[in-house]
Amino acid sequence: MMNRRLVAWLQAAPLAAVFAIFFLIPLVLIVTVSFWQATDYELIPAFTPQAYLDLFSGCGGGADDLCVTLSTYGSTLKFALLTWAITGVVGFTVAYFLAFHVRSTLVQTVLFIVCTVPFWTSNVIRMISWIPLLGRNGLVNDALLGLGLVKQPVEWLLYSDFSVVLAFVHLYTMFMIVPIFNSMMRIDRSLIEAARDGGASPWQTVRHVVLPLSRTGILIGSIFVVALVMGDFVTVGVMGGQQIASVGKTIQVQASYLQFPAAAANAVVLLAVVLMMIVALMRLVDLRKEL
């Protein structure tokens, strides 16, 4: 019995070491620094909640007078929810088509590779590629002006909330497609046939059979998308024209000005918010049973 336990611990040791080195130790350091003091010239090891107090200073003014921190978190949550909803619809539709309408495994593989083509370049290049398309003198505005649909260039196509959400959807839809497709491929096809034999319409089959049985993939994809959007600062900076606030952007700016306690406190609060969102999502599906 002891040998079996020792072997089990030895087998888990490499993964535990990676988890400790790349997650636990950095997390402990961030939490520790969040309680330090900082001047213009140095960091002072201490234990003070000043960084957290500064973070939420002026936040008791009521809903009509939100402080900068709550406004920033509200803006980031708005981007996360919009991106989650759009990527969920697009990801479910694409995964449904690949799983139930493409019969050939070879064609499924080819279409999957086609979906991954944008990932062959970096995120920054993919975002910059939107600028000549959506800019004031871009292709979309030229087409709208040429067709006579608008009299002057549309300004909100770029450096706006619209362009930020569009870039997020472009970047992260694949993170929704893959887990949903994996869940759909595990659905027993006899259930689909039984629903059809019972007189269910295609929409009723999707709603009452495919959608409930795909909830594990939807949940996993949702966790990926929400976590990535909440911590992203490059996309907001490039597609928002450095004019739109997000939590990740705030942390990046604070770190660039060497305000590490403030940045660390912001990171801890962001981590807590994301964990609460993930816990709320996981209450909908018991992943341990589904996987």
Helix content: over 70%
For the record, what CATH class applies? Mainly Alpha
How is the CATH topology named? Answer: MetI-like fold
Largest sheet: 2 strands, antiparallel
- N-to-C SSE string, H for helix and E for strand: HEEHHHHHHHHHHHHHH
The largest beta-sheet arranges its strands as: 1-2
pLDDT < 50 runs, ≥5 residues = none
Which value, in Å, is the CA radius of gyration?
24 Å
Chain-averaged pLDDT: 88
Strand content: under 5%
CATH superfamily: MetI-like
Beginning-to-end CA distance, first to last residue: 28 Å
Which architecture name does CATH use?
Orthogonal Bundle
**What best-fitting shape do the alpha-carbon axes yield?**
globular
Task: Tell me the number of structural domains.
Answer: 1
Structural class: mainly alpha
Please count the helical segments: 15
The overall strand count is: 2
